[in-house]
Amino acid sequence: MIGSLSEQIAKWLKSKKIIEAEDVDVCGYGIFWLLNIIEFLLVSVILGTVLRILPGALAFFISFLLLRLFGGGFHMDTELKCQITSLAIITAFIIAVKMNAVQKASFFMLLAAAAGTVVLFILAPTGTGYEDGRITAYRRICRLVCAVSLLTAIIMFVFKVYSAASGIAAGIIAESLLCLAEILKEHRATTK
């Protein structure tokens, strides 16, 4: 879906001599990520608007996106499975934000986010693509984003902006669960 569209756009850019032939793969990868981000942002905005928690949905999207970029985590084996899983995760966590924002149970989301922060500090980044010494840089960035996210969620909670506090906390929780899932997947692969 998005992968083939990204390739077509990159090839079109090459045919128009906007990019060089050796840049097609890199450009295609960048377009792929840009289209994914736009898709997930649109889903977050639509769900947030329908559920009347747009600030919480956007807080979740930003927190989750930044942590996902630098923390890695579980990936499915095909693009379609990855898209469906990502959309299901976004939907489930935005619904959780709605439930917590309405019930003002954000405190428990913050506790779970604190546990998720510990998981991310210890385990992230997980998955592939962190070779050649980049793992240290990604780990530092992930830890910084995680710490700033948790601190921001706590500040939002103190100022009674429960929707945003729950959204940020949900982003931390979602990414920590994906990191744990990736570690379990890697463990199963090595024990077979």
Describe this structure in words.
The protein has helices at 2-15, 24-50, 54-71, 79-103, 106-123, 134-158, 162-191. It is mainly α and 192 residues long. It has 2 domains: 1-50, no CATH class; 54-191, no CATH class. α3 (54-71) packs across α4 and α3 (54-71) packs antiparallel against α6 (134-158).
Q: Which features does this protein show?
A:
192 residues, mainly alpha, 2 domains, 7 helices, 82% helix, 0% strand
Radius of gyration (CA) equals: 18 Å
What oligomerization state is this entry in?
single chain
Number of helices: 7
Q: Using the alpha-carbon principal axes, give the shape.
A: globular
Percent range of helical residues: over 70%
Question: How would the blueprint of this fold be written?
Answer:
Layout: H1 2-15, H2 24-50, H3 54-71, H4 79-103, H5 106-123, H6 134-158, H7 162-191
Helix pairs in contact: 1-2, 2-3, 2-4, 3-4, 3-6, 3-7, 4-7, 5-6, 5-7, 6-7
Quick overview:
With 192 residues, the protein is mainly α. Helix content is 82%, strand content 0%. The chain is globular, with a radius of gyration of 18 Å.
